[in-house]
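Hi,

Apologies if this is the wrong queue. I'm a grad student, and the batch job for Amidophosphoribosyltransferase from Halorientalis pallida produced an output file that my downstream script rejects. I'm not sure whether the problem is my script or the file. Here is the sequence I used:
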Amino acid sequence: MHEKCGVVGVSLEDRDAARPLYYSLYALQHRGQESAGIVTHDGFQQHSHVEMGLVGDAFEQSDLEQLNGSQGIGHVRYPTAGSVNACCAQPFSVSFKSGSLGLSHNGNLVNADEVGDQLADLGHAFTSDGDTEVIAHDLARNLLEEDLVRAVKRTMSRIHGSYSLTIMHDDTVLGVRDPEGNRPLCIGELEDGYVLASESAAIDTLDGELIRDVRPGELVVLHADGTGYDTYQLVQPENTAHCFFEHVYFARPDSVIDEQLVYEVRRDLGRALWDESGIDSDVVMPVPDSGRAFASGYAEAANEDADADGVEFAEGLMKNRYVGRTFIMPTQDERERAVRLKLNPIKSTVEGKTVTLIDDSIVRGTTSNQLVELLYDAGAEEVHVRIGAPPIVAPCYMGIDMASREELIAADQSVADIRDEIGADSLAYLSIDAIAGALSKSKADLCLGCVTGEYPYDIDGEAKDREVDRPAIGTAASADD
Ligand code: AMP
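Support response: The file is valid. Your script probably expects a header line. Output copied below for reference.
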């Protein structure tokens, strides 16, 4: 199960947590549109409301009113193609002998089946096939024997993979980030409490201050009276495995991850793209909205380059904001139709011009393929495509619903083949080194599985790689290749 989600948790002094949680989920809506949920605790009992759909549709005023209590957690869940599944909506909640638990999970465990089987042998009954329920049961079991911190530590030693969690044990809200720090999680301060969230944009929405990222392997326990928090470094990681794709595509540009504003990282990647594979053209235009920051960095670097002719930055493609993400479309035909519905060129910015089209990534190739054709139809003389990430050659097992190997255009094709398939005059991707450079991280501290095919986790049938030197993959094809 690939769960690419948003999580949040708040503990306030004496205000109800439901509204701040609801606003935070709105801020994290880009991380998941399939379902939304909130669980609160009023000091005596848990209250829960979990629904399929967008945050705005999932909650009525009356739902928020019944979510009593100053402590709570929330979740938005990413849709996985074809499996709209109400049983996996979160937060997951469970009552057991020594209290109640609520869990919100972003990430994906690699040994959930194994741990689940062991728990089932011990008599635990599961209501879903989700790995979040496995974590909840393991933790509930440990809590019967140990205090909260030790129980979490024991669960962390059993589960492997990617998890940023917000947990509610009775009225105590916790945040946990896996030892590799694969998915983001940060902590912020409000006027009257504390908040844990997948992204700092959620903290901004509540007029709070970002304190810092939760460290890989760290547990943060918010005081139940909203006045502070304690932290425990439960596992000391040797290497991290931060997902670079968070910075490239998934996170909001206005979020700060690892002390770097995502927007600036994307602009730096755009600048690096110019340095690595810049090509003179009349206009540079982004695929909205995913390519915007990359294109602005690229155009800026082009215009600073004394050896280049100078370029016009144009918003040459208009986006219809009412069309959902193309990824949700189950068939290729519908995906192609959706791109056409979603984007339309502004003819005057394109006609008779050489155009460089910039996006963050190519997954199946649908978007680039359609847009190159659209730009030619609108009168472009040449279309060059520049991509702010390396070729995606392998699936993501760690939470991004990225498509299977068979669907990935770069899984078994050279850059020249892909250029031909999308019909561009030239195509270039960004190198892995440029990604590591912009993130100021060693490659050994990043999860690069989708661009190397080698994963920092044990995944059945896949290669494991924890070495610093990763193989170089070709990233560019000009018209003459
Ligand atoms: P494709 O059209 O299949 O090549 O997908 C590439 C487009 O989808 C780009 O515009 C990306 O910004 C966007 N994209 C990349 N990864 C994802 C993802 N996991 N979910 C939804 N959209 C994505």
